Amino acid sequence: MALLRVEDLQIYFPIRGGILNRKIDDVRAVDGVSFEIEQGETYGLVGESGSGKTTTGKAVMGLNNITGGDIYFEDNHLNPGKGKKVDVRKDVQMIFQDPYSSLNPRKRVIDIIAEPIRNYEKLTKKQELRRVQELLEQVGLTPESIYKYPHEFSGGQRQRIGVARAIALKPKLIIADEPVSALDVSVQAQVLNFMQQIQKDLNLTFLFISHDLGVIRHMCDKIGIMYQGRFVEEGLRDEIFTDPQHIYTKRLVAAIPDIDPRRRQEHQQYREQVKEEYQNSFNDYFNEDGLAHSLKSITDTHRVALPERG
Amino acid sequence: MWKFIVRRLIITMPQIVLLSLFVFIMASFMPGDALTGQIGPDVDQDRLQELREQMGLNNPWYIQYRDWILGVFQGDFGTSFRYNMPASEIIQQRMINTIWLSLVSLIFIYALGIPMGLISGRYNDKLIDQVITSYTYLGFATPIFIFGLIALWVGGFQLGWFPTGGSVAPGLEPGSLEYILSKIHHLLLPGLAIALIGLVGTVQYLRSEIIDTKQKDFIITARAKGAPEQRVYNRHIFRNSVLPIAAFFGYEITSLISGTVFIEQIFSYPGMGNLFLESINIRDYTVVTALVLLFGLAAIIGALLSDIILSIVDPRIRIK
Amino acid sequence: MSDTLLLEIKNLKTSFRIGEEYYAAVDNISLDVRHNEVLALVGESGSGKSATAFSIMNLHNRAKIEGQILFNGRDIANLPPSKMNKLRGNEISMIFQDPLTALNPLMECGRQIEEVLILHKSNMSSKQRKAYGIDLLNQVGIPRPERIYDQFPHELSGGMRQRIIIAIAIANKPELLIADEPTTALDVTIQAQILDLIRELKNDLNSGVVLITHDLGVVAEMADRVAVMYAGQIVEIADVETLFIQPLHPYTRSLLSSVPNAEGTDDKLHVIQGIVPSLKHLPREGCRFKDRIPWMDDSVHEEHPELHEVSPGHFVRCTCYQHFHFPEQNEEEQAHGIT
User: Fold this and answer.
1) Taking the domain B90-319, which CATH number applies?
2) Per the count of CB atoms within 10 A, which of A119, B291, C149, C152 is most buried?
3) Residue A106 confidence (pLDDT)
4) What is the pLDDT of residue C34?
């Protein structure tokens, strides 16, 4: 049983226009996306801006209205308005991109971290204090920092506070939306290591959303590549990075800067070659609207959006 | 942009209907009706009922409302209880005076406020900015009627530079040069009094806009292009900061209304505000009702103007 | 000609006032850039790399700049504004990080390009300016330039906006191009395109490029030489291969091993202990990196760390590099206990 199952998810945003501001068309932010995440796994959602990866994450979190499709968490139907309402917000938490703006600057650390606890559990002041201190220790901050304000911390420490808040209710799934994009490399390393550590300690499942393929490769077991609201390819890490099948995936992978300057020439040539292939074979890989075809399975784990002709 | 303006106009319609309904309901709660003051005390009740029937005063409220609205559209605001003449006639001349006063005040507000805001924002935290900012705090704290009295006392009585009342010197031929000059002369002091208090908002707003814009990235781009400081201000900072001020223009009209009510009274300037207070004092309800409606309309049109101006000057709205 | 120094920075010190005192964000750095060369300035936020770039352009608002900035042999540090304005956008120009905010939202793209022509090519007629502006848009790879010319920045995508900014920067064929995190705000495929564009333009114009970035991948792809900055100082400078293959300074080595690399292993990333000190609290005495490698013995550091030339063109600050090793498990735990 998958922890999270998303089936044919569609999220359309209306385009309004005309004098009466009526809906004239839709933006198909997410257009038929399906994937499953197993317990304890880290699933990476990759795509460029506008690909719908964040919208997908928010939908799982219940922050977006869903136009169509189904989301199941532990086989409970999550769509608002369908079936009985299951409150999974306790089990699904989110870590945000910007540790500078996602923490209320006027609240002390204890209030920030205790906020979800206060919403769901009735604890005495003493119990709450002990709980917050435990959480801080878990994320590697000194328990004395509970009465400090966010600005007294560095970027990496703030992201840890954000994580402490996210794990306060012992969630099962954490949606991390670009959790390290705003951080310096060394701080980024700190947060990534730490996320892997708590994943092991708490048996967490991650939905990791990022545009940074280096980070995705480092963190994720399984990866879905999104383009304009659709999946173009999905597979295990090695399948995506060493054996990309879809031209868009190839192009993304080729665009990652190579850290070895000796291979610069070679890498540039390869990138140029992929770019040419991309331009020449665009019509083979995308339909007449420039959208990806539906996914076909290549192996048990590897699915690619290829046209019908086989 | 046209779509936006048309849409905005459509939204204005229900606002106006609501306003008129509100005014109508308010008027119907006031003591007396259109017959009050028209008839002698010895008219008998039957005759009165007959007259009421004739004038439609016994009709259901919505019929009365419709009749009233139709009248308003034709410029018929009813008859003044006191003067026994159409309210529109009483208001007309006053309205023209008020429009002139507002116009002069607006010119003063922008002619003084924009340079003050610009200097204050450009040289923020320098001495000149501290002086201007202190003035704006003072202006915020000073009620306009106190300031009006001071202005009248200093400019009108102590220095004697300006007339102390009325809108024109008596005995002049309307249309003659002297008449026009006298009109302007009468406008200057009340206009200035309104402006000196009215501009503080503009100054502070412009100042903070400029300080804000100064730190934008595209200002660094402009400097990196090699643009001299003056050009950076003229082409980049000023234009981007004045935009919200331009949008404020319409709201300024609304705030002027409250200004003129007091100032006209103090300067015994025969305008709508002056008339408003007078009419309340003598319980001339038809006139009061008509004025409330007009003031309300002015406010709605002001807001409308603001939005339209913003849509014209800001390409981010214009293109959509 | 390509061997003459285009830019030579000598003992540059840029200080900002906090309260009553000045604190040096750039503390005594020396650099040089040649024609047709890309020098990368690498470091994390607070390292002083952007402050260095802004010092070259003299774009700091209120800063004290000491030392020499020789541009074609002429000292341009603290040049009066009227003279500096002749250089900016003309012989030296800059590409900015965030293409969304670096363009005036109320001006058509074409007019923003024309402005830099009005300022430096006063003999051009408005017709010539427009023709040249459209030509520039073509050069930076913008499709349908005539249309884009009259559009406002918010109508374009991030990549297109960055191309507009580059068009502005190269309009007067600058000898020196300063690119401050030019691709940080862009998607990876767009990043590749923009980097290609900068490289091509550099070759066409024979310009020198100062590339400021925190992205080591971008450095590996673009740079000829690299200067690594930490806490306002250069800690290591070398040609790009040497720096990536044989990095010496502990900071360089730590940075390189904290990047999730393309081979994508499950290994833990290296974490530099402690935090980047803020400007006010920069260690001004001894090795500035000392606090970040507490497991190393104090004796490995120099009292007054200097840049040592370890091989031609390869400089490393302080002697601690000779003994540096990454922490053992127990050392790491110990160090974490302290913080």
Assistant:
1) 1.10.3720.10
2) B291
3) 87
4) 94
What is this model's ipTM?
Answer: 0.85
SS3 B132: helix
* Contacting B residues, span 224-263, partner chain C, CB-CB under 8 Å: 224-229, 231, 235-236, 239-240, 243
Residue C45 and residue C61: Cα distance in Å, rounded? 19
Assess C35–B contact: CB distance below 8 Å, yes or no: no
Q: Say which DSSP state B79 is in.
A: B
- Of C192, C261, C264, nearest to A255 by CB-CB distance is C192
- Decide if pLDDT at C15 tops 80: yes
Nearest CA in chain B to C118: B227
Strand C74-75 to C63-71 pairing: antiparallel
Q: Which domain holds residue C108?
A: 102-171
Paired residues of C23 in beta bridges: C16
Planar angle of CA B174, B176, B179, nearest 5 degrees: 65
Closest to A161 in 3D by CA, of A211, A205, A102: A102
Question: Domains of chain A, with CATH numbers?
Answer: 4-228 (3.40.50.300)
- How far is residue B211's CA from residue B129's CA, in Å, rounded to a whole number? 12
Higher pLDDT, B226 or A138: B226
Strand segments (E) across B169-235? none
CA-CA distances (angstroms) from residue A227 to A29, A224, A305, B298?
10, 10, 11, 52
With respect to residue C193, please indicate whether it lies within any of the assigned structural domains: no
Minimum CA–CA partner of C97 in chain B: B217
Query: Which residues of A fall within a CB distance of 8 Å from C211?
Result: none
Cβ distance C104 to B236 less than 8 Å, yes or no, reads yes
Neighbours of A272 (CB within 10 A): 13
Question: What is residue B190's three-state secondary structure?
Answer: helix
Asked if residue C324 belongs to a domain, the reply is yes
CA-CA-CA-CA torsion sign (B289, B290, B293, B294)? negative
The Cα A308–Cα B68 span in angstroms is 71
Query: Residue B265: pLDDT above 50?
Result: yes
What residue ranges of chain A have pLDDT lower than 50? none
Residues in B closer than 8 angstroms to A21, CB to CB, are 7
Looking at the domain assignment, is residue C215 inside a domain? Answer: no
Question: Which of A15-29, A228-242, B61-75, C169-183 is predicted with the least confidence, judged by mean pLDDT?
Answer: A15-29
- Please name the residue that has the structure tokens 């901050």: A141
Of the candidates A309, A277, A287, the one whose C-alpha atom is nearest the C-alpha of residue A232 is: A287
Question: A124: alpha, beta or left, given left = phi > 0 and alpha = psi -120 to 50?
Answer: beta
> How many inter-chain contacts (A to B, CB under 8 Å) are there?
8
Higher pLDDT, C31 or A48: C31
In terms of C-beta density within 10 A (0-12 exposed, 13-18 middle, 19 or more buried), how is residue A39 classed? middle
The domains of chain B are located at 90-319
Let me know if residue C41 belongs to a domain.
no
